[in-house]
Specification:
The complex is a heterodimer of chains A (about 725) and B (about 300).
Chain A lengths: L1 E3 L13 H11 L2 E5 L2 H37 L2 E4 L16 E7 L13 H14 L6 E6 L14 H9 L10 H11 L7 E7 L10 H18 L2 E5 L9 E9 L3 E3 L3 E11 L5 E9 L2 E10 L2 E10 L4 E10 L10 E9 L2 E7 L11 H6 L9 E7 L5 H4 L4 E5 L6 H12 L3 E5 L6 H9 L8 E7 L5 E6 L21 E2 L2 E7 L3 E7 L4 E8 L2 E6 L16 H12 L8 E3 L3 E4 L11 E3 L8 E6 L2 E8 L4 E7 L2 E8 L12 H7 L5 E4 L15 E3 L1 H29 L6
Parallel strand pairs in A: 4-5, 4-6, 6-7, 7-34, 9-15, 16-17, 16-18, 18-19, 19-26, 27-33
Antiparallel strand pairs in A: 1-3, 3-35, 8-10, 10-13, 11-12, 11-14, 14-15, 20-23, 21-22, 21-24, 24-25, 25-26, 28-31, 29-32, 30-31, 32-33
Chain B lengths: L2 H15 L2 H12 L7 E2 L3 E7 L11 H7 L3 E6 L5 E7 L13 H18 L3 E7 L3 E8 L2 H13 L8 H11 L4 E7 L5 H13 L2 E9 L1 H5 L5 E6 L6 E4 H26 L2 E6 L4 H15 L5
Parallel strand pairs in B: 4-5, 4-7, 7-8, 8-11
Antiparallel strand pairs in B: 1-3, 2-3, 5-6, 9-10
Helix pairs in contact in B: 1-4, 1-10, 2-10, 4-5, 6-7, 7-9
Classes of the chains: A alpha/beta (about 725), B alpha/beta (about 300).
């Protein structure tokens, strides 16, 4: 039985028709003449005509067969001499292997007392490489390489061994799902038939492998195994003693945007694992290289938090660096953590209130949330104005405008407001009891042409209050609330709201009620951003203002619509930095410097509709600096703290992970002696095809020469 | 214009207007005293031979019987006019012509012109037209009506089949009972050995043979160029050849063939003249006849 390992190349068989086509095309070109003295012409060719005819037929045959066998060789035919009912999917292990080796060089692989776990992984991998034979092809994919262009497989085992020797632990976080994905994709670059997927890892559990991801991973592996008979081997060095580690879990501030010349709190969370006693050490905090403070802590198995206060004297991005002093574990990577604090002078906001409820002396809930009474110098500079007193000149003195339960504004002001948004201003429209849907829909929404994110329908007044059903947690707005913990929106009760009617297609739902109705919508309109809150931002229709999440959300909205929310500046190792040049591309070149001072390559991209640059995956932890003319920004790349937790995956857990798959757990070199494969009944025929093609080529050359001689002797062009 | 008119206007008119010497030369051949060596009933006594059953007893020489008691028959030497047979090749190859006139056209006109000339001299002329076999045969005659029927037959005939010269000549020779003149008009594209053998058989039958070979000038020069597919006129298979590369080989082969024919004819005492279809027919005939007179001596 013959199989074709590369059946796509069967199209090349068509090439075998080329000589015939050329021959036929050539035939058509001659002119026919009638001739009387054929006797003498026949005398000329009579002797060699038969020979020439045979030669030409043989030449045609040889040329056709030459191309045919080359095309067949490309399809890699596989002859299986086993009976038809034998299990043909089990490819021999001693044939030519196509091995894809996936190396989990995540940060946790760098742990070790005398030598790191990665060294054990390298030893095991080298033992595996020793089982390979000449002609086997191997791809080496490191977790830290994901995101870069895949390389072609290696045939040179010595180069492979050298690559293994130079492996170093990276700072990236484990991601088995992505690693396996990359490995399965890499098989498309291999040509050998016997596929093997080798996962080399330190055995730590992948906490990010959710049930959904796990099911997808299992499905992909099963499909690959059933299609190609891929063998799966998981190489994990034997576990040593339980890791002991103390590291910094988090370094953060209460707000994303911090005010200038104002005391702000900076929190450092320290965690410990693998020890029962306590350890004394201190946390040192620096801001832009200057010492902020040093606090002594008693580290234990669990978390310890310390808080520092600091006053930033200037606006801009400041590098905060926290370090553990006096820690003597075997995983120093998580003893230092950096974070970027964004400091701004102030954000001018125009708050337009309903004239009926406007009171200059009694600020609304929104105004109170923006102008925190805790600080003398608020980040937001809020201008209150009644809708009846507002002028369009006021718009351009502010970065953001809030329409709070405003029934209507002059049509000229609506047009000016639209221009303000289009040219980069931010707008928050909060509806409420005074909202007049007809005016809102006719002048503000204008069937999707206006600035609203959605036109509004009837007012909803459910019998029982509704709660928040879901939030778009991936949106940068909610990044400010990441440290809040739990789900702070669940307890909010919404009594009344406007049901959106037609949502603009470029709108995004940020908060939805439990019945699915959108509560908070966001829409980009040219350079500006609009947010639409479909209930009131006071207590008349809900109890939102009395919840703790109200203030951060309102401030987050303020930051967002004021265009102060930029691509993340605090990143995890292995992710890419996005830079948005504030003055556009014409202002000059944008550069990104790594902590080592080396320039990081950038590619143009877009972020939130703006022109931006994106870097390669940042593998080194520390502070990165982006420079543009008259603008500098800093980015902090840190280790994922979970890498320091060293939560070892149990054998049961791995069994569960690879359930239903043909896989083998290997923890020593001896276990690499794979079970004897069934007698190899398969033979690849491509070599034979190539040999035959070469024979035909030689024969063709000989015949061509002979044909030329014969033709010279009778001066005959063609006998056919 | 029919063949009779055409020949009269184009050929005979010219033959009449050629110089006296030339005309005399022609006429001396065509209308000279043809002394037949056929023994038969005539005025001049030739010999005696024994009587065989079936002989007319009127020819018994009673004087010889009286003197010698033998039954002898008197044999006379007969004096007669020329008795000619034109054997004309109508095979496919005769249909070739690189310009307005094919070899067949030329051969047909030549046969017609010779017939006219001979009848004018009161000689008798017969006609055989053949390709692979003899398909038209008109016995010798000397009346104008006979000539017209010959011309009509010539006009009707179209060349087309394969050539097989040797058996045809053998066949014609076997039918010729009396001495006479055989004029063979053909391109001679058959195996030279077979043609010579057939001609020798004609000579063996005591026939005087004139061999008029008709060729197209392009068959001699082979002036075509490039790769061509040659299609024969006698159902031969097609040949794809480079004309430039085979020209000299072809010419050599044709020359070799013609030389063999020429040598064979010379050895047999046969008058051979090569016509090219682009030459003037009348002049060609005059030149051929003059050459025959000057060069060819019939073998004893």
């Amino acid at each position: 039985m013959i199989q074709f390992l590369n059946i796509a190349m069967a199209a090349g068989v068509v090439a075998a028709s080329i000589p015939i086509i050329v021959h036929l095309a050539h035939r058509k070109k001659t002119k026919v003449v009638e001739w009387g003295a054929m006797r003498f012409l026949e005398e000329l060719v009579a002797k060699s005509r038969r020979k020439l005819l045979l030669n030409e037929l043989l030449l045609l045959l040889f040329r056709t067969l030459l191309l045919l066998f080359l095309a067949i060789a490309l399809t890699r035919p596989l002859w299986n001499s086993a009976p038809k009912n034998a299990n043909t999917s089990a490819l021999p292990t001693n044939g030519r292997k196509a091995a894809v080796v996936l190396i989990d060089d995540s940060a946790s692989s760098g742990y070790g007392r005398s030598f790191s776990t990665l060294e054990g992984m390298k030893t095991l991998l080298s033992a595996y490489v020793d089982t390979l034979k000449k002609g086997d092809e191997v791809s080496l994919i490191k977790l830290s390489d994901l995101g870069s262009t895949p390389e072609d497989p290696l045939f040179d085992l010595e180069s492979l061994r050298e690559n293994i020797r130079t492996l170093q632990p990276s700072s990236v976080h484990s991601d088995l799902s992505r690693l396996v994905d990359a490995g399965l994709n890499q098989f498309s670059r291999h040509v050998n038939p016997s596929k093997e997927l080798i996962i080399v890892m330190d055995g730590m559990a992948d906490e990010d492998l959710t049930d959904e991801k796990l099911r997808a991973l299992q499905t992909k592996l099963k499909n690959h195994q059933s299609t190609y008979g891929t063998r799966l081997r998981v190489l994990v060095p034997k576990a040593g003693e339980e890791p002991v580690n103390v590291g910094i879990k988090e370094l953060f501030t209460d707000q994303v945007l911090l005010p200038v010349d104002q005391s702000v709190s900076i929190h450092v969370k320290v965690f410990g694992v693998g020890f029962k006693e306590t350890r004394k050490m201190s946390v040192v905090l620096e801001s832009d290289g200057s010492l902020v403070g040093e606090q002594e802590i008693i580290a234990r198995d669990g978390e310890v938090s310390v808080t520092f206060t600091n006053i930033f004297k200037s606006a801009g991005s400041h590098v905060l660096k926290a370090g553990l002093k006096g820690n003597s574990d075997f995983f120093p990577k998580d003893d230092i953590r950096e974070s970027i604090a964004e400091v701004v002078q102030s954000i001018p906001v125009l708050l337009i209130e309903n004239p009926a409820s406007f009171s200059a002396k009694e600020p609304s809930f929104i105004a109170s949330a923006l102008e925190s009474s805790q600080h003398s110098n608020s980040l937001y500079h809020v201008t209150h104005v009644s809708a009846s007193d507002v002028t369009d000149a006021m718009f351009w003195q502010n970065r953001a405008i809030i329409l709070n339960d405003v029934p209507a504004i002059d049509s000229l002001l609506v047009a000016a407001l639209d221009r303000f948004v289009v040219s980069g201003g931010g707008l928050l429209v909060a509806l409420g009891p005074h909202t007049r849907p007809t005016i809102v829909n006719e002048y503000w929404a204008r069937g999707g042409e206006g600035f609203l994110a959605a036109s509004i329908g009837e007012k909803a007044n459910p019998t029982n209050s509704l709660h928040v059903g879901s939030i778009n947690s991936g949106h940068p707005l909610f990044a400010t609330m990441a440290s809040t913990g739990g789900d702070p929106f669940k307890s909010i009760s919404i009594r009344e709201y406007f049901k959106p009617d037609k949502i603009s297609p470029d709108s995004e739902i940020l908060i939805a009620l439990e019945n699915g109705d959108p509560l908070l919508l966001s829409r980009r309109r040219n350079l500006g951003t609009i947010m639409q809150f479909n209930s009131s931002l006071d207590v008349s229709w809900n109890d939102f203002p009395v919840h703790s999440v109200f203030v951060p959300l309102v401030r987050g909205i303020g930051e967002k619509i004021s265009n102060y929310i930029l691509p993340g500046h605090n990143l995890e190792a292995g992710t890419q930095i996005i830079i948005t040049p504030q003055k556009g591309l014409d202002a000059g070149p944008t550069r990104l410097l790594a902590p080592s001072g080396q320039q990081v390559p950038l590619k143009p991209t877009q972020w939130e509709g703006k022109i931006a640059f994106i870097s390669e995956p940042c593998l080194n932890t520390g502070a990165y600096l982006s420079t543009q003319p008259e603008q500098q920004e800093r980015y902090a790349v840190s280790l994922n703290y979970r890498e320091g937790l060293f939560q070892r995956g149990t054998r049961e857990k791995w069994d569960e992970t690879f359930r239903g798959l043909d896989w083998k757990w290997v923890s020593t070199g001896a276990e690499l002696n794979l079970p004897a494969a069934a007698e190899d009944t398969t033979r690849e025929l491509w070599k034979a095809c190539v040999v035959l093609a070469i024979c035909f080529l030689i024969g063709e050359s000989f015949l061509t020469r002979q044909h030329a001689i014969d033709q010279q002797s009778v001066l005959l062009t063609s006998a056919l | 214009m029919n063949l009779q008119t055409s020949i009269q206007e184009q050929v005979l008119h010219k033959l009449n207007s050629v110089s006296i010497a030339a005309r005399q030369a022609v006429e001396s051949i065509l209308s000279g005293q043809h002394k037949s060596i056929r023994r038969g009933l005539s005025i001049e006594f030739a010999n005696h031979r024994p009587y065989v059953p079936g002989d007319d007893i009127r020819h018994l020489d009673w004087f010889v019987y009286a003197r010698s008691d033998r039954y002898d028959v008197r044999v006379y030497e007969e004096e007669t006019k020329l008795r000619a047979t034109i054997i004309l090749d109508a095979s496919g190859s005769m249909g070739y012509g690189s310009h307005s006139r094919t070899k067949w056209d030329f051969a047909r006109d030549c046969a017609a012109a010779l017939s006219f000339l001979m009848l004018r001299q009161s000689d008798s002329v017969g006609l055989s037209i053949f390709d692979s076999t003899v398909h038209t045969e008109i016995p010798a005659g000397s009346t104008m009506g006979h000539l017209i029927s010959m011309l009509n037959k010539l006009e009707e005939t179209k060349p087309g089949n394969e050539t097989d010269l040797a058996p045809v000549l053998m066949q014609a020779a076997s039918r010729l009972k009396r001495r006479g003149l055989v004029i063979l008009i053909t391109d001679g594209f058959d195996r030279s050995e077979a043609v010579i053998k057939a001609l020798s058989y004609l000579r063996h039958k005591k026939q005087e043979v004139w061999f008029f070979q008709i060729l197209d000038p392009n068959e001699l020069t082979f002036s075509m160029t490039g790769v061509l597919e040659f299609q024969g006129l006698e159902k031969e298979r097609k040949l794809k050849l480079d004309a430039d590369r085979i020209r000299h080989l072809y010419q050599e082969a044709l020359l070799r063939h013609n030389n063999l024919l020429a040598e064979g004819c010379h050895a047999l005492g046969i008058r051979r003249y090569v016509f090219q279809t682009n030459e003037d027919l009348a002049n060609g005939i005059i030149m051929a006849l003059k050459t025959s007179v000057a060069q060819v001596q019939p073998r004893a």
